[in-house]
């Protein structure tokens, strides 16, 4: 990125409103002359995406299908997943759209879904962790783990571990995580991932998203990048059914400035498709096709210690019952 473009990007990045809204997307995509996603040919590549039946996940899945990839939709509702599968296949003209039905918060279901994928596919080029929702009340997933953490931290940790053998066949495979800019609001607090009675959905969601980004870096340190690369990203503020349902006032006030689902999912698809920096680096956290810092709020950096990172990794191993 030439110097004047870096200056523009930093000006946009400083206030969250300009960076996270459609303004940031519009300016950055124009000044950097982004390659249109439609120009990528993914014929012969396979992509599994969780949370693929609505919002950003559905948008990303359809774009990947239009690019020619074999797309495996992972959803928890059989009827909805099948309707979306048929819709994406029809809209994209791609007959290679499959589905797996499993709840990411149910670890036994994750194991079953992974076994189904392994039985069908000897190779997986891209695994995308996109499933996740912001809940207003505390819910417990099967197995006793708080639902947000089960579906967005432990479930993805387990699924990544189980699918590593076929990701390695792609050499390098890619594991991508849809995080959130909300993670900037909190530090790494492993003990609070299991909240008690004083439950605040937005805070728990932010903690889970912070954990995702930390684990993304740790996976990148743990796995040889010639085997599998790891990246996390956030979509900015996008207009999705999930945002409308969980943050209705925010959606109403910010409506005109929110990104479309396609804009929110752009960097995710780019990370899956581009054979430049996304393929030759690992451990990045991205927004608008550029790596971003991990801390914006004072104090959060102090919580990001090697000891807490190791504690998070070992907690996930124990909760998922695996050792990658």
How is this structure best described in words?
The chain has 324 residues and is α/β, with parallel strands linked by helices. It has one domain: NAD(P)-binding Rossmann-like Domain (Rossmann fold, 3-Layer(aba) Sandwich). Helices cover 49% and strands 12% of the residues. It has 13 helices and 8 strands. An 8-stranded mixed β-sheet has the order 3-2-1-4-5-6-7-8, with helices on both faces. Strand 5, helix 8 and strand 6 form a beta-alpha-beta unit. Helix 4 packs parallel to helix 5 and helix 7 runs parallel beside helix 8. The protein starts with a helix and ends with a helix.
Itemize the secondary structure elements and their pairings.
Blueprint lengths: L2 H11 L2 H5 L1 H10 L14 E5 L4 H12 L3 E6 L2 H15 L4 E5 L5 H14 L5 E4 L17 H24 L2 E6 L22 H22 L5 E6 L7 H6 L1 H7 L6 H13 L3 H4 L3 E4 L2 E2 L14 H15 L4
Parallel strand pairs: 1-2, 1-4, 2-3, 4-5, 5-6, 6-7
Antiparallel strand pairs: 7-8
Helix pairs in contact: 4-5, 4-11, 6-7, 7-8, 7-13
What's this, in brief?
Pfam families: adh_short. By secondary structure, the protein is an alpha/beta fold. It has helices at 3-13, 16-20, 22-31, 55-66, 78-92, 107-120, 147-170, 201-222, 241-246, 248-254, 261-273, 277-280, 306-320, and strands at residues 46-50, 70-75, 97-101, 126-129, 173-178, 228-233, 284-287, 290-291.
């Amino acid at each position: 990125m030439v110097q004047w473009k870096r200056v523009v990007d930093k000006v946009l990045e400083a206030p969250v409103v300009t960076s996270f809204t459609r303004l940031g997307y519009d300016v950055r995509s124009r000044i950097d002359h982004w390659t249109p996603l439609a120009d990528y040919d993914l014929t012969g590549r396979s992509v599994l995406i969780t949370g693929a039946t609505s919002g950003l996940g559905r948008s990303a899945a359809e774009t990947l299908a239009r690019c020619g990839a074999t797309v495996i939709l992972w959803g928890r509702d059989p009827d909805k997943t099948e309707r979306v599968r048929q819709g994406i296949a029809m809209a994209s003209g791609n007959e290679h759209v499959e589905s797996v039905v499993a709840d990411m918060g149910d670890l036994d279901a994750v194991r079953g879904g992974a076994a189904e994928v392994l039985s069908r596919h000897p190779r997986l080029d891209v695994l995308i962790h996109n499933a996740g929702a912001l809940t207003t009340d505390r819910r417990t997933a099967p197995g006793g783990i708080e639902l947000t953490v089960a579906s967005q931290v432990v479930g993805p940790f387990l699924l990544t571990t189980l699918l590593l053998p076929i990701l390695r066949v792609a050499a390098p495979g890619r594991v991508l995580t849809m995080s959130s800019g909300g993670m900037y609001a909190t530090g790494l607090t492993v003990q609070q991932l299991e909240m008690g009675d004083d439950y605040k959905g937005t805070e728990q969601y932010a903690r889970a998203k912070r954990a995702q980004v930390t684990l993304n870096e740790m996976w990148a340190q743990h796995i040889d990048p010639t085997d599998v690369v790891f990246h996390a990203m956030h979509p900015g503020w996008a207009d999705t059914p999930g945002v409308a349902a969980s943050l209705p006032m925010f959606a109403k006030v910010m409506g005109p400035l929110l990104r479309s689902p396609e804009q929110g999912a752009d960097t995710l698809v780019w990370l899956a498709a581009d054979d430049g920096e996304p393929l030759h680096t690992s451990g990045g956290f991205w927004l608008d096709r550029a790596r971003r810092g991990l801390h914006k709020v004072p104090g959060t950096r102090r919580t990001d210690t090697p000891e807490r990172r190791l504690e998070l990794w070992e907690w996930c191993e124990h909760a998922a019952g695996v050792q990658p």
